[in-house]
Amino acid sequence: MRVFVTGATGFLGGSLARQLLDQGDEVVALVRSSSKGAALAEYASKAPGRIDFTEGDITDIESMRPGMQGADGVYHLAAWYKVGATAHEAKLAERINVDGTRNVLDLMGELQIPKGVYTSTLAVNSDTEGVMVDESYHFEGAHLSAYDATKAEAHGLALQAMQDGLPLVVAMPGLIYGPDDHSSIGRMIRNYLRRKLPLIPAKPEYCWAYVDDVATAHRLGMQHGRAGEKYIVCGERCSLVEAFSLMEEICGVPAPSRTAGPGLLRFLAGFMQAFQWMKLPPDYHPETLRVAARATYLGDNSKAKRELGYEPRDLLEGLPLTLRHEMEKLGLQFPG
Which CATH number covers residue 88? Predict the structure, then answer.
C-alpha cells in the first residue's frame, strides 16, 4: 500500500511511519527538509517497507501534490502544538492546524484518494468537567488554548468534508505519552526525574495512551474504520496526581508532595495576564495556567475497541517503558 503521511517526523507520526514500514507499506513522508527524515530513512533500510521523502509543507497545497498523487491512503498528522501560545504563535497555529488541514482535505478530494485518516484530539471537546464523553459529544464555547481552538476548527473542516463525501476517518487521541516526548507532559516527566518538579496541578485528568498504541489505532482506522466516522483512541483515565504517584511506585523517584488547586492557578493566570507582553516561559503563561486549573480532557474509547479492535496498554505497562528510557538518557538507574 502506498500511503502519504504528514507529520511523519513527529512524536506520533514517527511511530506510525515505523509501523507502516514494518508492515511493508510504501511510505511517502512530507517533510520541510529531507535532513529531518534521516532517522526514518535509517529505520526503513532495515524494514520490509520503503520510504520516500517529498519536501513541502501543508500550508502550501501544491507542494503536497507530487507526493499525494497516486496514494492509496493519506494519514494527516502534522499539527502545531503548544500550551502557552504567544499572539504570534496563535496565528501560526491557525495557519498550520486550520489552513493546512483544509489544504490536505481539499487535495485528497481533488486527487480522489480512496481513504484517509485525520488526527484530531479530545481537546476539541475542551474541559469535559470530569465526564467521560463519546463521539456524539459536541462542545460549543470558548476553548482554553489556541491549540484547542484551532484543532476544533480543523475538526469541523474534517466533519464537513466527510458530510460532503470525502472517505475520511477521524482519530481522536487523548493524552499521548512515551519515550522522547517533547510535549508539556514529556517535559514534566523529565523534570520530575531530575527532581525539579516542585508541585503538580491538583485537578487535571486525562485519558493516557502510549504513543505506539495511538499509532496502531491510526493503522486500524485505515484498515477497519468506517469512512465518515470519528473514533476516540485514548487510553485509561488518570489524574496528574495519580499518574505521578504511580511513577513513584514504578521508578522510586518521589512524586511531588505539593499540589496547586484550581483557585490558585486561576489567580496566577489572571496575574500573569499583565505580563503577556514579555516572553514568558510556557509553564508561566496565562494560557498554561488556565489549562492547568481546570482541564479534564476525558473520552470513552469503547467504539474504537469495538469497531477497530483497539486495545491500548495500561499505564502500568506503558509508564515503565517511558521512565526506563528517560532515566537512561538522564544517566539515572531504573530499578530492577
Answer: 3.40.50.720
